[in-house]
Amino acid sequence: MSWKPLRQLGLAVLASALLPSLASAEQTLRIGYQKSSTLLTLLKARGSLEQRLQAQGIRISWHEFPSGLPLLEALNLGNVDVSADVADTVPVFTQAAGAKLTYFAREAPSPTAQAILVPADSPLKSLADLKGKRVAVTKAAGSHYLLIQALAKAGLTFKDITPAYLIPADGRAAFENHKVDAWVTWDPYVASAQRQQRARILADGSELASYQRYYLAGSDYAQAHPDVLQQLYLALREAGAWTKANPEAAARILGPLWGNLDSVTVQQANARRSYDVQPVKPQNLAEQQRIADAFYREGLLPKAVDAKDVNLFEPLAH
Fold this sequence. Notes:
The protein is built from 13 helices and 13 strands. The protein is α/β, with parallel strands linked by helices and 318 residues long. Part of a binding-protein-dependent transport system for aliphatic sulfonates. Putative binding protein.
């Protein structure tokens, strides 16, 4: 089965046909996000997405999730309409559960924005030293794939470690209290641990995991509302460009929302993220297939996944 494009030919006609009904009956766009969903967090804080969509009679409700997997599970169940960015690994787990997904945007790779952390005084010096150690990682997150690839590089598998599957908040607590030997996570948690706990990076995603983040929608919603996805795509592109051009201003907004992180920590985290929002192309699914195959080989997926069995939203010129 191959990827299925959602074409936008005649979008203007479709949008104009929808406007009368939108004006007479307000609709709600339900957006799921997590703390690391930088661009949608900024859009939420600044109210700019509401301003963009209110002319179409669309209001927004925001729903925060602790990590990407429960977020996409909610998307699959129809509890949210669109998902903020999740790591490239998360959709393959959701596909294995039978979800019908539409990719509508991606952020270009940010390999250094996730890392394997150890305490400053840890005796672990190389990836091979992870053998026999207890490692905290969030299931299905980009960091999960990074750990698989890092272990493989060292000639190890998950059978050689004791994984502790923890959401980021619990992973941080376990790391701080020396309940685990290493913690695999992503920014802003990486930057925060570096600055507050003096954590040391054992390895980041360079040459291991490219770490692209994807934005998704429920396929039924995407089919019915391509005009909304178009506006959301454009808003994300603008927010990404603004964030890179205004690091200090972005940090002032994000710091309080990320647990009162100081400006330097936020800027350090954001410097490692590309925030370059692009369309999702069929060739991007090749890496998705490699990710799916890696998880299946490790026995972490219940069945093989065809990464091409998704819809791809095609935005208008950007």
